[in-house]
């Protein structure tokens, strides 16, 4: 296993410098193989198959370069073959407040109205009321309803309680089709934000039939002050230029890797600043309050269809409280921070933090993709 690219049946995308467009790839014996074909010109097409892993294992194509060569290429330089986000036509959706313990931080953001100076005092008050009562609580259960009512009785009602431990999950649109960035790219913060953080998550690849076919890693960049001012600003807080990172590749489910491995995954997070600051964090999927299969069922079904499938962020246990500069104000990003999210079965997703206005503009949309594939006689 490479430190950044895992073993297993992998599928993803690169910018192919020779074709001047995206190619579908897999990894074999330390090399990236171009498996783009008229049968499956898109990752979306593979995810729609009855046996995605079986297809990828048998697919043939030319070698594009070694893992080291592709990962060392400059992301965004069209003269170099480099990794892209592993999704193409799939919708990119995300679930929020899926870990009851991290739900507390959402309540704090709301009660602080996005002001980090107020967070520490509110955090102490909330913890004095709930203690460890959220440990292992299952969203939508009778126990969860009792906790919710106890918090409401203490004057701590929050809309985050409803989606955190109530019957219905929060599911929102994280990014536009093709706008996600891959590993090695800059990841963007809206310039109006001064209190923000990474969110290390597992992201499921789901077919149009609602079948979960694989998983990858994601950074659901979070603007705590913007969303904290009003939950109605969720779209502004979540969907900005380069604000969604996914990768490095999708690991397809097979005999060696299944949804049960996702349920047991331990994610590691490291933030390394140019100022010497280092923050380590983690997210344990066994602490999730809603099963991943339930989150998928709440997202896609007879009530809502996705003809090209979707990628679904599952949420995070991680909620940073470590002070960076001012005591009591917790963590916030600085330009140049390198965020690395990793777990052995899925590899590592690494991105450098910039303002969204400093990141490369998103210019390659669906119309550009279709024209590019047609010119290459892949459609």
Descriptive tags:
about 375 residues
Give a concise summary.
The protein has 379 residues and is α+β, with helices and mostly antiparallel strands. It has helices at 43-47, 52-58, 67-72, 100-111, 119-130, 142-153, 159-165, 224-229, 234-238, 259-263, 292-299, 366-375; strands at residues 10-16, 21-28, 31-34, 63-66, 82-84, 91-96, 170-175, 186-189, 196-197, 200-206, 212-220, 222-223, 244-252, 266-272, 278-284, 310-313, 338-343, 347-355. The strands form three sheets. Strands 1, 2, 3, 4, 5, 6, 7, 10, 11, 13 and 16 form an eleven-stranded mixed beta sheet that branches.
Number of helices: 12
Name the beta content range: 25-35%
Measured as a percent range, the helix fraction is 25-40%
Q: Strand pairing plus helix content: what structural class?
A: alpha+beta
Spatial extent as radius of gyration: 20 Å
Mean pLDDT: 92
């Amino acid at each position: 296993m490479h430190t950044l690219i895992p073993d297993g049946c992998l599928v993803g995308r690169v910018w192919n410098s020779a074709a001047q467009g995206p190619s579908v790839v897999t990894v074999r014996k330390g090399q990236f193989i171009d498996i783009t074909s008229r049968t499956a010109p898109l990752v979306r097409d593979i995810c729609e198959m009855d046996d995605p892993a079986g297809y990828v294992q048998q697919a043939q194509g030319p070698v594009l370069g070694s893992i080291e060569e592709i990962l060392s290429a400059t992301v965004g330089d069209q003269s170099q073959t480099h990794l892209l986000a592993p999704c193409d036509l799939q919708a990119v959706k995300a679930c929020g407040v899926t870990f009851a313990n991290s739900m507390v931080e959402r309540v704090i953001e709301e009660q602080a109205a996005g002001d980090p100076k107020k967070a520490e005092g509110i955090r102490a008050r909330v913890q004095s009321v709930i203690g460890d009562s959220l440990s292992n609580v299952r969203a939508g259960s009778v126990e969860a309803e009792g906790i919710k009512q106890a918090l409401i009785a203490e004057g701590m009602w929050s809309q985050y309680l409803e989606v955190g431990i109530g019957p219905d999950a929060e599911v929102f649109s994280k990014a536009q089709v093709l706008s996600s960035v891959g590993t090695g790219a800059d990841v963007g913060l809206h310039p109006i934000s001064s209190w923000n953080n990474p969110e290390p998550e597992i992201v499921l690849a789901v077919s149009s039939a609602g079948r979960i076919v694989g998983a990858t890693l994601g950074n659901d960049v979070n603007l705590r002050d913007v969303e904290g001012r009003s939950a109605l600003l969720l779209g502004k807080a979540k969907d900005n230029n380069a604000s969604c990172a996914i990768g490095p590749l999708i690991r397809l489910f097979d005999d060696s890797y299944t949804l049960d491995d996702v349920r047991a995954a331990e994610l590691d997070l490291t933030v390394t600043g140019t100022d010497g600051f280092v923050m380590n964090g983690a997210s344990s999927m066994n602490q999730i309050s809603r099963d991943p299969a339930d989150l998928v069922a709440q997202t896609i079904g007879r009530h809502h269809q996705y003809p090209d499938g979707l990628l679904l962020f599952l949420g995070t246990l991680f909620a940073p409280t470590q002070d960076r500069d001012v005591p009591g104000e917790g963590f916030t990003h600085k330009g140049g921070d390198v965020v690395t999210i990793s777990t052995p079965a899925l590899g590592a997703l690494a991105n450098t933090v910039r303002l969204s206005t400093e990141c490369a503009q998103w210019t390659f949309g669906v119309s550009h993709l279709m024209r590019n594939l047609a010119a290459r006689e892949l459609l």
